[in-house]
Amino acid sequence: MVSTHDTPQHDIPSHDASEALAERIRRAEAEGTPLRIVGGDTKAFYGRNVQGEALSTREHRGITEYDPVELIVSVRTGTPLHELEAALAANGQMLPCEPPHFGEDATVGGMIATGLSGPRRPWAGSVRDFVLGTRIITRQGSEQRFGGQVMKNVAGYDLSRLMVGAQGTLGLLTEVSMKVLPLPGASRSLHLDMPLARALEKLSEWGRQPLPITAAAWLDGALHLRLEGGPSSVAATAERLGGDELKPDFWAALNEQRLAFFARDDGRALWRLSLPHHTPVLELPGVNDADVLYDWAGAQRWLRSDLDAATLREVVSRAGGHATCWRGANGQPVDETFTPLAPVLAKYHQNLKAELDPKGIFNPGRLYAAF
């Protein structure tokens, strides 16, 4: 492994604040004081509000180990996400899950806690797929290591993955080891005017072929594609598919929700629908094509609607998916961001929370009111 300080291009600020964090957690456990874990706070809107004393991870930062040859990096969770990405890019590598930032202060910990992935997700994998191991401070203030730095090391592997998307409710994540991948040799983006039905049909057809597609989104009457891979493959595919050249910054604007679709101020709630691949257009009352942005080749859909949560979630559930309220009507917070759990799943969640955090000090109520 290579230390960040052995290679100047990775010499980003580094500081180990784990003992101070552990001491604060030990005190909170003894006093029964709830803690609100804070990194960059750029994704604070994603989930329920947490009442508790702020516990910041921002001082706990730096790349601890990085082996470009083995495609593995270990990094403290308070590290700004853009610093990690810059260090990887200096070696021609990247985070394949393409996590959104939603602000300059986004941290590695926020990436793991929310588990949000970008346009490349259906073709490359999710955040969870690239986590190899973690370090976590438990409620007793003890830092424990789970998983490892190689794919074949399975000890604690599932527990490390369990932390992805847990929003800090199971313990304080202090370090993560991840698999990284090389940047693509070539990239081109295309804009193809076509109606939604034809776009979904073509995406289903192309999905059965070995095409170098790494992003696909439909909005405003057009299908947007990104091709990545070897130069000859990308060029040949672009010539075959046709269309107009699309500025590559479109994908960052989509990922960071800077497109006009997300900026509309029409008073309606914004929903994120997660659906099986090749799900047809959903029959939703009062919803037309202009109200939906299709990402992940249609597996992730952004919907503007004033439908009540129960009706919408019932339709999405029947299609095999789930609906998350990203932003409430008129920008107001919502009580239940995530789809309510079935009784059996709720029991498992409650049992896990009771085992790892019986006093409820870690981000209580962040995911669901009961835990």
TrEMBL record:
EC top class named in words: oxidoreductase
GO molecular function per UniProt: glycolate dehydrogenase activity
Chain ranges of the FAD-binding PCMH-type domain: 4-183
UniProt-listed Enzyme Commission number(s): 1.1.99.14
SUPFAM superfamilies in alphabetical order: FAD-binding/transporter-associated domain-like, FAD-linked oxidases, C-terminal domain
Domain of life: Bacteria
InterPro entries: FAD-bd_PCMH, FAD-bd_PCMH-like_sf, FAD-bd_PCMH_sub2, FAD-linked_Oxase-like_C, Oxid_FAD_bind_N
Cytoplasm is among the record's keywords: no
PANTHER family xref list: D-LACTATE DEHYDROGENASE, GLYCOLATE OXIDASE SUBUNIT GLCE
Protein keywords: FAD, Flavoprotein, Oxidoreductase
Keyword set includes Flavoprotein: yes
Classification lineage: Bacteria, Pseudomonadati, Pseudomonadota, Gammaproteobacteria, Oceanospirillales
Protein name: Glycolate oxidase subunit GlcE
